[in-house]
């Protein structure tokens, strides 16, 4: 608009509007988009509003009617709406018309927003929904909102300490991807209660939840990819036998269903030890995964680095090692006696292993790292051809320098 008068009105026809509060200070006062949001929306003339993003900070007055901007977007046949309210006042209700908007394809509600679905709702075009740290009027409001989305495919939920839904139930027949996060910054659950997932079209799931009450995954025959961190065990209520890819934190509860589930279709598995003796459960999982091709052990996020481990050589070699396992990776390998025996066992019994990548624990000194690498190099391998890559780090002149040592071995 400053460069050309011709642009004075061009902006009024663009289909995307983004309003984000900044912390710039002018004459001792903080600016906020709310001061000109009303005026600019009235001047905007595009017949269809493809996307609008509104992020309001604490400088927005608590008596401001922020719901009118959502109503304005609905009048403009908005397709993608993202509304985030970060003020210090209590959560507000959005206009009830939002829950009957037939043009909405994506909806993101964040922070000080009260989800209150009292009357019948219908969001016939919505395929993507994000509920990020919002508050619900009651459990019926949650059920009413989810049931109003007949073609919903992606659901992202992040719970908040003020969230008052005790029994969180996800029953959406069209849902294909679910992300559920009930962990705060300290790795603990803010909300007590249960989680029930009953969505037959679900293909991908990510659950981060340290609550110990109840968690169940039922009626998911198409589920192929999962990332699981839970602190409760629900017996046979975890229907994971159809998985092709699994990313799992080894906790006491997850160990139980790892050792009892038949992962007949599993091809890729990432294990992240968390707070338990995990070597024997890992071997049980390998026994239950005959088609496994990739195994990654990642100790970079382990809660306790020196957790006591036990190792007992299996009575029989897992089928995946004799017929399918091609890639074996280990991040933050510590070189302890039990860990060493596991590596020795995998290298010595994996017939079709092609790539081995081991990252040595970054907290070890250089001498110990070199010793561990020498030990790994000397281990016998069953595979006819494997490429080994060892990674280590040293501190040099206050900089973190990563050293790569590549070794190709052909037997």
Structural features, described:
The chain is of the alpha/beta class and 411 residues long. It is 19% helix and 32% strand. The protein has eight helices and 24 strands. It has helices at residues 34-43, 67-75, 139-147, 252-260, 279-287, 319-323, 337-349, 366-378; strands at 16-20, 25-26, 29-30, 51-56, 80-85, 92-93, 106-111, 113-115, 128-132, 135-136, 154-158, 167-170, 177-182, 194-198, 204-209, 214-218, 225-230, 245-250, 268-273, 294-298, 327-333, 355-360, 385-396, 399-410. Strands 1-4-5-7-9-11-13-15-17-18-19-20-21-22-23-24 form a 16-stranded mixed β-sheet. A three-stranded parallel β-sheet has the order 6-8-10. Strand 23 (385-396) and strand 24 (399-410) form a beta hairpin. Helix 4 (252-260) runs parallel beside helix 5. The longest helix is centred in the C-terminal third of the chain and has 13 residues, at 337-349. The chain is elongated. The termini are far apart.
């Amino acid at each position: 608009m400053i460069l050309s008068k011709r642009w004075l009105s061009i902006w009024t026809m663009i289909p995307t509007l983004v309003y984000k509060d900044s912390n710039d200070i002018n004459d001792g006062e903080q600016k906020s988009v709310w001061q000109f949001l009303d005026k600019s929306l009235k001047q905007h003339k595009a017949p269809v509003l493809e996307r609008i993003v509104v992020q309001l900070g604490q400088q927005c007055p608590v008596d401001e009617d922020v719901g009118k901007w959502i109503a304005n977007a609905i009048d403009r046949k908005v397709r993608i709406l993202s509304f985030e309210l970060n003020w210090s006042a209590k959560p507000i209700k959005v206009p009830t018309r939002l829950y009957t908007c037939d043009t909405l394809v994506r909806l993101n509600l964040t922070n000080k927003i009260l989800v209150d679905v009292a009357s019948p709702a219908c969001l016939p075009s919505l395929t993507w929904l994000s509920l990020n740290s919002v508050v619900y009027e009651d459990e019926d409001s949650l059920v009413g909102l989810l049931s109003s989305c007949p073609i919903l495919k992606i659901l992202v939920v992040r719970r908040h300490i003020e969230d008052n839904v005790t029994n969180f139930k996800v029953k959406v027949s069209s849902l294909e991807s679910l992300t559920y996060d009930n962990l705060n910054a300290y790795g603990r659950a803010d909300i007590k209660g249960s989680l029930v997932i009953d969505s037959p079209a679900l293909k991908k799931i990510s659950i981060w939840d340290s609550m110990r009450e109840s968690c169940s995954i039922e009626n998911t025959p198409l589920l192929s990819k999962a990332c699981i961190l839970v602190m409760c065990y629900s017996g046979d209520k975890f229907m994971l036998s159809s998985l092709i890819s699994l990313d799992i934190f080894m906790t006491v509860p997850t160990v139980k269903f790892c050792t009892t589930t038949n992962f007949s279709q599993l091809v890729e598995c990432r294990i992240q030890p968390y707070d338990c003796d995990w070597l024997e459960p890992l071997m049980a999982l390998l026994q239950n995964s005959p088609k496994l091709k990739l195994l990654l052990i990642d100790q970079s996020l382990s809660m306790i680095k020196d957790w006591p481990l036990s190792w007992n050589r299996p009575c029989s070699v897992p089928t995946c090692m004799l017929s399918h396992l091609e890639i074996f990776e280990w991040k933050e390998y510590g070189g302890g006696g039990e860990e060493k025996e596991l590596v020795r066992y995998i290298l010595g019994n994996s017939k079709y292993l092609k790539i081995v990548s081991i990252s040595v624990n970054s907290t070890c000194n250089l001498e110990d790292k070199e010793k561990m690498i020498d030990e790994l190099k000397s281990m016998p391998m069953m595979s006819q051809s494997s490429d080994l890559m060892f990674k280590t780090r040293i501190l040099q002149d206050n900089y973190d320098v990563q050293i790569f040592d590549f070794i190709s071995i052909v037997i």
